[in-house]
Write a sequence for this structure.
């Protein structure tokens, strides 16, 4: 024990020198540890200069990058086949940074109208404050998308599988229209995940995620991600550090852990959701089911063409009879299937878009988008599908 004061000894033991010793050892942890450090220390100024210049490996400050976020980005790139990735503190942070890195005052965006409500709100009420206008147009009409594009249009934006109507977007053909006019095509692939669709292979320039959903998959983290080529990632990286939007080290560790089972989970989510959709479709208390894997869905041929191994993911929506009353009764009567204003957990949950994710829509916009008061959105989990169906059957009997 050195003869310094206890306060001093406690301030210096067990960090810088020990960290260096561990880093130079002959063994490494099997799983990357959580680097819960806001900043990194250097032995001298040239070492810091070398890291800034990219001449030496090392980290500086965790708002810029952290070993855990590097690991999460590496795993995401491996899943998506992307050159680069950035992980964010939320899906909204990822989406907004991908947008603001590519527009400035006077620019214009063309977007599909059926979107996650937070993004719709941002497009409709926030971006105009900064002089960026957004035109919403039905992406099933490619001529309408083309007609909406102006000389100042910089971005065409959509979701692979729309929230909450489960429309499948014809990404390759939308990409052609966007690129013919020099626009970047940004796709939110949150509902699909790279285990169902890979938009970068289908013509998208930038893919965005709420990693809070399937990529996290356990309802225990809030996060987001952007994937693209090196050039686009470098441009977004500038906003990412300036706006302070990086994912925390603990969430990055959770995300890496979760990604290991993504493909297995999505396979099971997809298989279960198809069975539940087939059950609901035949049920007399259900007016309509929205799931692209159903033979009756007009999106089935496109899903077969674009999606991986016939999977359509775990999300489906259904119109319950008797409007708001029917939807509320079903929610109340489900016992282990919880009413949760989110999605993509391992267990089955129900959400009510008109009251939660799509609250920001005006009644007129909601009607135009096809979102109704009797519509529920189901996130089908990885339980035994027969048990999910039995519980829904029992609850529907009370509607
Ligand atoms: N994109 C989609 C499709 C979503 O469903 C959500 C949230 O529900 C988001 C983006 C926003 O993600 P976050 O809540 O992680 O900010």
């Amino acid at each position: 024990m050195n003869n310094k004061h206890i306060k001093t000894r406690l301030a210096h033991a067990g960090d810088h020198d020990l960290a260096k010793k561990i880093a130079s050892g002959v063994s490494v942890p099997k799983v990357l540890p959580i680097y819960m450090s806001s900043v990194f220390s250097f032995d001298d100024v040239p070492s810091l200069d070398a890291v800034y210049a990219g001449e030496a490996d090392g980290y500086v400050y965790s708002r810029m990058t952290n070993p855990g976020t590097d690991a999460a980005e590496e795993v995401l790139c491996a899943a998506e086949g992307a050159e680069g990735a950035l992980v964010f503190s939320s899906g909204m942070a990822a989406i907004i940074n991908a947008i603001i890195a590519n527009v400035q005052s006077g620019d214009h965006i063309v977007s599909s109208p059926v979107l996650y409500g937070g993004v719709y709100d941002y497009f409709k009420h926030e971006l105009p404050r900064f002089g960026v206008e957004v035109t919403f147009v039905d992406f099933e009409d490619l001529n309408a998308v083309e007609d909406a594009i102006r000389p100042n249009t910089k971005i065409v934006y959509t979701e692979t599988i729309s929230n909450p109507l489960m429309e499948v977007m014809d990404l390759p053909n939308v990409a052609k229209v966007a690129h013919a006019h020099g626009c970047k095509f940004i796709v939110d692939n949150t509902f699909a995940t790279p285990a169902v669709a890979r938009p970068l292979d289908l013509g998208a320039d930038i893919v965005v995620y709420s990693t809070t959903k399937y990529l996290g998959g356990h309802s225990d983290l809030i996060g987001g991600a952007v994937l693209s080529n090196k050039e686009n990632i470098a441009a977004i990286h500038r906003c990412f550090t300036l706006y302070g939007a990086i994912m925390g080290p603990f969430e990055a560790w959770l995300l890496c852990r979760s990604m290991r089972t993504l493909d297995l989970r999505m396979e099971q989510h997809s298989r279960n959701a198809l069975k539940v959709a087939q059950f609901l479709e035949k049920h007399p208390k259900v007016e309509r089911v929205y799931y692209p894997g159903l033979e009756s869905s007009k999106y089935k041929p496109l899903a077969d063409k674009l999606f991986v191994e016939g999977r359509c993911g775990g999300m489906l929506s259904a119109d319950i009879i008797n409007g708001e009353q029917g939807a509320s009764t079903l929610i109340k009567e489900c016992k282990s299937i919880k009413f949760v204003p989110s999605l993509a957990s391992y267990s089955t949950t129900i959400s009510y878009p008109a009251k939660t994710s799509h609250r920001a829509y005006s009644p007129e916009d909601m009607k135009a988008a096809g979102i109704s008061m009797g519509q529920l959105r189901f996130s089908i989990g990885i339980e035994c599908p027969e048990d999910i169906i039995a519980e829904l059957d029992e609850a529907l009997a009370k509607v």
The chain is about 40% helix and 15% strand. The mean pLDDT is 96. The pocket of pyridoxal-5'-phosphate is lined by residues 90-92, 116, 118, 159, 163, 188, 190-191, 210, 212, 222, 224, 357 (CB under 6 Å). The domain at 262-396 is CATH 3.90.1150.10 (Aspartate Aminotransferase, domain 1).
